[in-house]
Amino acid sequence: MSAEHGAGRRYACCERETFPMRNTGKFRPYTIALVASFGAFLLRDAIEAITHAPEPFLLFLVAVAFSAWYGGFLPGLFTSVILVFAGIFHVQPDGPPINVAIRPITFLLSAIAICIVVRELRIARSRAETHAATAKATERSLHSVLESTEDAVASLDADFRCTYVNENAARQAQQSVASLIGRKPWEVFPQLAGGSIQAAFAQVAIDRSAHRFEVHSQLTGEWFECNVYPTVTGMNLFIHDITADKQAEDNRAALAAAMDNERERLAAVLQDMPVAVLVISQDLKIEIANPMAVALFGDAARTGQRYQTIKNWVVRTKGEVLPPEERPVFRALRHGEFCANMEVEYERQDGSTLTVILSCTPLRGPLGQVRAVLATYSDVTSLRSAQAALAATERQLRFLFKSPTIGIFSGEGEEIKDANPAFLSMVGYTLEELHSGAITWTELTPPELIQRDARAITQVVDRGYCEPFEKEYLAKDGRRVPVLIGIVSSKPGTWSPWVVWVLDLTERKRLEERLRERAKLESVGILAGGVAHDFNNLLTSIMGNTALAADQLPEGSDLRELLDHAILATERAADLTRQLLAYAGKGHFVIRPLDVSTLVNETFAIVRGSIGRNVTCRLHLADGLPPVEADAVQIQQVVMNLMINAAEAIGTDEGRLDIETGTTIVGPDDAKDAPVESNLPPGTYVFIRVRDTGCGMDEETQRQIFDPFFTTKFTGRGLGLAAAQGIARSHNGAITVTTAPGKGSTFLVLLPAELQREELETTERDHTLTGAVL
To answer: What is the pTM assigned to this prediction?
Structure first.
């Protein structure tokens, strides 16, 4: 029932679509049924009046059939009911009673049967209309498809003649559709001409099975694919232009061959690449690994292995540990990020480290998804170690270049290209002057040393370096700077470009000169001390015997007067002996704490009378000086000698004599400038400075003023300054001079100070040294 009901609904819908005017009103079918019923009654009455025949039963059934055909089953049933009731009241009263019951029932059953039959007819009609509409729609759709397709389509009858062709077939044949109807395919399409193709059509007709074949046009070079399908009345032919497909296939074949070649070349390149290459899939499987990757990472990087082993290594970049999710390989796999030239340090599980330059490129699939990652690793472990060693060497060389003790300069030929501050300080030039070309090899070398440089250059050409040798450079201010140099060339067989290291020998030469001077002075001092000691013994005997002889002579004797003159000469000889012993640092000293300012003041009072009035004397004596441990007589002798020498240097000209006392701290550098024979240690010293405006001294005189018996005076003995130096040395002090011709002289006496000031003691402390003083 449900299926029939559904079918009734479907066909009712079709009926409404087919007869839209019949269902415009809801009660219209019943109205028609009622009209048909009354029409039947009226027609029955007319027939009875004319023919006097019994009731025309068939006429009522026609009305039912009309109502059912027009309105459906229910309107037909409605008409049947009306007619039944109308027929019952119309029965003759004198008729048999059974007719009253049988006739209406028979009529009603007949009417129901007619309604059912009419309904089925209506359903069949609706179905037929639907099928016809569907067929027409399908035909229109198929015709549209056939006309819109790019293929040439034709329908053939049993004789292989065209009963239908589409517009594309007409265009390919360059004819109209009407001219193609009734013609065979090979008559229309020359490319189908040929016995084998006609045989193929015949085989389709015999086997009743589809057939496919390709046709190549020798004239146009085109390729066509023919598909023949059997039908009830013949067959259908589909012709498709596959020229582009053939070309694409040829291109694909060529591309496949090229890809094979490229694959082989890529494999060869990967085999010989100096960098490690890994292709890692999304499941962390190594798809491709070249030999360098295996050499770099070991068996963990072989093709087919899991990337898990390398993943477990500690990874650092710029000193920071990277978690796995932040590593370039995983960011490329998960996020498609590109990474180029990132320096990464791997720490293997055995503790060794590996430094690489890493680049990661995501490999994407057809839909743009990341399929794998291409990772390249360039091993720079050795390079970084070499760079670190090079940087350390560079730092050392830079430290050496900036060293203030060793001069370094380089250049080509005669031109000096670069120099460090130490060398520029030696020769007195600036870096700007060097870059301007003001300094050349020849300009720095004295003419007499050119040949020595030539011999060194010959060694450099032969061996690439020369043995260190001594020479002199001409400084900017005209000084000659003694140096020790070595030359190195960076190109064998030539001396240019070259690098020269220079060691300033000025200090060493000065120390050597001072040592030679000290040795000379010590030898002279030893000689003077020995001679003075022996001569003093002789004078003691002479003076003693002469005094005894004088005592034995009477007063007023001429001989006694001669002996007194001899004694006076002996005393003068003893004074000379005392000065020699003072120079030698020997003698009998009375050492006690002294206030140097008081001593200088007292000595100046004694000497002032012997200084000419043309000399203006000024005293600058400091108060509260720390005491010095010294012999007052000896220090007084030093001060007197300096004052008298200063006054004599001024001569008869107007001049000034300044005497100053004070304290000073002598450091290591200051101690080096003191006379080498004094062995002056750093510390606090009391100084006596005697400055005059006299004639001054030249360098030659200055070098000899402390030599015994050297004098510039006609009547002098040349022992005053020598004795002063000996006295200062014996008191652990020093005496220095600063002078120049026409600019006067300044003598500076340095005596070590007692840091803990004590009250001046009157008790004398005797320090007896070798020798004696008369």
So the answer is: 0.40
